[in-house]
Amino acid sequence: MKDLGSLRYFLGIEVAYSPRGYLLSQSKYVADILEHARLTDNKTVDTLIEVNAKYSSSDGLPLSDLTLYCTIIGSLVYLTITRLDIAYAVHVVSQFVASPTTVHWAAVLCMFRYLRGTIFQSLSLPSTSSLELCAYSDADHDSDPIDRKSITGFCIFLGDYLISWKCKKQSIVSQSSTEVEYRAMASTTKEIVWLRWLFADMGVSLSHPTPIKQNPATALRFRLLRQTWFHISQDVFKTFVDQKGNYMANLHKDIKGMLSLYEASYLAFEEEKLLEEAQKFSTTHLTDLQRNVDPAISQLVTHALELPLHHRMQRLEARWYIEVYSERNDPNYLLLELAQLDFNRVQSVYQKDVKDMSRWWKEIDLANKLDFARDRLMECFFWTVGMVPDPQFSNCRKGLTKVTTFITIIDDIYDVYGSLDELELFTDVLERWDINCVNKLPDYMKLCFLALYNSVNEMGYDTLKEKGVNIIPYLKKAWVDMCKAFLREAKWSFNKYTPTFEEYLDNAWRSVSGTLILVHSYFLMNQSITKEALDSLENYHSLLRWPSVIFRLCNDFSTSKAELERGETASSILCYMHETGVSEEIAREEIRKFIEKAWNKMNKDLNDKHPFAEAFVETAFNLGRIVHCTYQHGDSHGAPDCSAKNRVLSLIIDPIAIMPRQVKSQ
Question: How many CA atoms lie less than 13 Å away from 485 in the CB half-sphere?
């Protein structure tokens, strides 16, 4: 036996050693592949394969030299021993070794030019790394346009150096992205188990469990569990932070992971620092990435940064995503058609509801009798669709449309039309809830009070008949509390008084009408009525209070300038500026933080014990969402612009055109 010295070269792999560790390279092997492929030009490219490229066996013309293609692919597969960066691209082109075409060969040529520019890239194996395994797993759902199979990818580190990786199509078609992720994790786990056995045979003891880090799936599962009342700790994200508590810098390269992390961060509770940092980290990197990615991905990133999914109106978001998905190069046409049909079916239910409401609105004729008030029937109905979008809640939507139209009229009475004496009288009559007191009111107030009185009593009668519970005292209290808050604001305006921010907000969450709407929602949803829930409604449980705070602060964001021009002295921004002496810009930033805190408190309330059914809790959250939709770019309720009208048209009037299903030729 002869000692040949230190290992320098083995089966095409060059080995270089230094005190810092080993470098494994296949640069000579790459040069041999390029020579074998007879690539004559000296061009290089920075991109290995076209982003979002989808190849099929029918692309292009058949290659004349099948042997060359097969040989080259075999060589590229061997090259992945040290070149993890080409693993996915090699996986793509290796699917067509049986019948390669000119399109597939063009993709291979692009890989050659990439390899020429990175010929000396090496795999580093440091000598000072710890002996602990760590795995990263991911999957690309439904990525193959031919057989709809998904792709598993993983890489496993021993300390700081990479020792195993894989990119392979899954053997069966999965029915959901969750199933895909679990199959990818199963493959990763198998590799981890084998490696731990291997180290045990070599006498190397691994004392700690091996974590599998899965950024997109972890963030997605976290978000889905939190928003469906399951308690899950923010600690699941600790695997993505370094020893200093900062999120790992390499995470920003994964756009899908960044989007998932960004969306998950908005399910945070108050004082969850890990999720606060996740939000800052993901927002910063997504802002940088949106300018340098594929336009389709950039569109998703821009949309998310504008407003997170957790704060968006559900049905409007559904329409937006259906339209975006239909523009993809490789949509699942069956799934797309199902989504389009479902949207149009639900929209037809909304159209029946709005016809009933138009008939009711004409019958009570308040729009003509009270010409000073805003006629906002369609905007009010749109609001209720945002709160209660499910088709089975037609009666709830119609009842809430009545409630919100009355709120709009009464708000105009207190805000712009009634004198202070008249407002005090109206509040007193409302509190008495006595039909015999109506003659004390001016004629315009008589009409408004009687229409409201009849509608509320009708709701109370229907509930008493069906549930055996008299709900009128709860409905009356909600109306009285709101009007008392209206009256207090009217007195502030009359006396030119600017309250403190705390004093203002303590009144404003009542005057904004959010609690009133939610109290009516509870009874209109035709669910079981419990004593615990009634007590919580009467005392305005925090699940009613926090969405109302969001409502008020978002409303002030879009209307404060108009209110200032009208001479009003109370809004959250004005009160904060008056109390602290800061500029409007700083005040707006602080109000923005208050809105985020309110969302965090709502998220916590969702996971805490409460007496409400799931449908009502979702309605409370949807109140916050429709608020953002209404006031994101102005006051879409008080002063609807073209964008607001287009939203109404897209959600209620205009159906989605059904795309003809496309079938690929075999």
Answer: 24
CA 138 – CA 579 distance, rounded (Å): 51
Burial class (CB in 10 A: 0-12, 13-18, 19+), 607: middle
Contacts 24+ apart (CB under 8 A), 579-588: 579/500, 579/501, 580/501, 588/557
Chain centre to alpha carbon of residue 664: 33
Residue of 195, 198, 144 whose CA lies nearest to 166 = 195
d(CA 157, CA 501): 54
Q: Give the model's pLDDT for residue 666.
A: 36
In the DSSP assignment, the letter for residue 238 is G
Given 3-state DSSP classes, what are the helix, strand and coil percentages for the chain, each rounded to the nearest 5? 60, 5, 30
d(CA 635, CA 649): 17
Cα radius of gyration (the chain): 32
Q: Check the CA dihedral 509-514-520-526 and report its sign.
A: negative
CA distance 227 to 276: 17
The token pair that represents 657 in the structure block: 């055109």
Q: How far is CA 343 from the centre of its chain?
A: 19
First CA to last CA distance, the chain: 59
**Residue 462: both structure tokens together:** 């229907």
What pLDDT shows up at residue 665?
42
Q: Do β-strands 9-10 and 13-18 pair in parallel, antiparallel, or remain unpaired?
A: antiparallel
Three-state SS letters, 51-98:
CCCCCCCCCCCECCCHHHHHHHHHHHHHHCCCCHHHHHHHHHHHHHCC
CA atoms within 13 A on the CB side of 594: 23
Q: Which of 103-117, 295-309, 447-461, 534-548 has the lowest mean pLDDT?
A: 103-117
**Is this prediction's pTM over 0.85?**
no
d(CA 297, CA 144): 18
Mean pLDDT over all residues of the chain?
Answer: 87
What does each C-alpha distance from 643 to 187, 625, 633, 634, 649 come to in angstroms?
Answer: 48, 17, 9, 10, 10
For tokens 């994964």, name the residue: 254
Helix (H) or strand (E) holding 13: strand 13-18
pLDDT on residue 64:
79
- Nearest 10 degrees: CA dihedral of 544, 547, 552, 554? -170
Identify the three-state secondary structure at position 575.
helix
Per-residue model confidence as pLDDT tens digits over 508-530: 999 999 999 999 999 999 788 99
**C-alpha distances in angstroms, 24 versus 16, 80, 366?**
7, 12, 82
| Residue type at 39 in one-letter notation | L
Encode 346-383: b = buried (16+ Cβ within 10 Å), e = exposed: bbebbeebbeebeeebeebebbeebeebbbbbbbbbbb
Element (H, E) at 473: helix 472-494
Q: Where are the alpha helices (DSSP H) in 307-373?
A: 314-326, 333-364, 366-369
Work out the angle at residue 489's Cα, subtended by the Cα atoms of residues 486 and 490, and round it to the nearest 5 degrees.
85
H-only helix segments in 202-329: 215-226, 255-265, 273-289, 295-306, 314-326
